[in-house]
Write a structure and sequence with these properties.
Elements (H helix, E strand, L loop, with lengths): L2 H7 L5 H9 L3 E3 L2 E2 L13 E3 L2 E2 L7 E6 L28 E3 L7 E7 L2 H8 L3 E2 L2 E7 L8 H6 L1 E3 L2 E3 L3 E6 L2 E6 L6 H8 L4 E9 L2 E2 L8 E3 L2 H7 L3 E2 L3
Parallel strand pairs: 7-14
Antiparallel strand pairs: 1-2, 1-3, 3-4, 5-7, 5-16, 6-7, 8-17, 9-13, 9-14, 10-11, 12-13, 14-15
Helix pairs in contact: 1-2
Length: 234
């Protein structure tokens, strides 16, 4: 296994991110500093970053149906329920890719695959995220174009890529941005309160038949599909 892939699998970042560790000379194999990115690591080798001995963990990627009332953090100072309470204790360390706020529910990805995390979060990639949005009153069609054109909210300029009406107070919305509480803030600006927010798709991956609190491991084909997002020159 190439050294950068080994370090990424040990949870030290994406392959690109760990290249800086290697180039800086902080990585040692069997006591010898290594700066060659193409260096191969065998199971018998001792690999250290600084004074820390690192081990490759098995790569794991899962889809979780996050229920309302859970927060996306490993530890919460207010002792609230976290998404990690829903996962098996024997799993290797995983990270959530993106987040859903406490009141929101739906599809959440968890992984220790640094390359996948980069593919889903880097600004140069376009990843569609589809939501079902319940409102406290009927949606007014005149607001559709403003949401599609976009406007400034706390956190930056926000826009919606697609919007369709499923019922007077129920919408389907597609985002490609990741501004904190984006949909809640955008609809609040137009005089609505969101009563239910559920993410049902990330790129090609759908929530499917998962129920609140349930998870499933992704297949290698699903992971490969997620790593092939649309890329822009921006």
């Amino acid at each position: 296994m190439r050294l950068n892939r080994f370090l990424a699998s040990a949870g030290l970042g994406s392959r690109r991110g760990v290249e800086e560790l290697i180039k800086s000379g902080r990585v040692k194999i069997n006591g010898r500093a290594v700066t060659d990115l193409a260096t191969q690591v065998s199971p018998e080798d001792s690999v250290k970053v600084g004074s820390r001995l690192v081990h490759a963990e098995r790569t794991l990627t899962a889809a979780l149906y996050k229920p309302p009332g859970y927060v996306c953090t490993a530890k919460d100072e207010r002792d609230r329920k976290t998404i990690f309470d829903l996962l098996p204790k024997h799993w290797p360390r995983v990270f959530h890719v993106g987040r859903l706020d406490k009141e929101s529910e739906g599809l959440l990805l968890l992984t220790n695959d640094g390359d996948l995390s980069l593919a889903l979060t880097h600004p140069r990639f376009h990843i569609d995220k589809e939501y079902e949005v319940g409102l406290d009153r009927a949606f007014e069609p005149k607001h559709r174009e403003k949401l599609l054109r976009g406007f400034r909210i706390e956190g930056g300029f926000a826009k919606i890529e697609e919007i369709s009406t499923l019922a007077p107070q129920f919408l389907k919305v597609v985002l490609r941005q990741g501004i904190k509480r984006q949909l809640r803030l955008m609809f609040y600006e137009l005089g609505y309160e969101i009563t239910r927010l559920r993410r049902v798709r990330i790129g090609p991956l759908k929530l499917g038949k998962l129920r609140p609190g349930e998870w499933r491991l992704l297949t290698s084909a699903e992971v490969a599909a997620l790593k092939k997002p649309t890329q822009t020159d921006a």
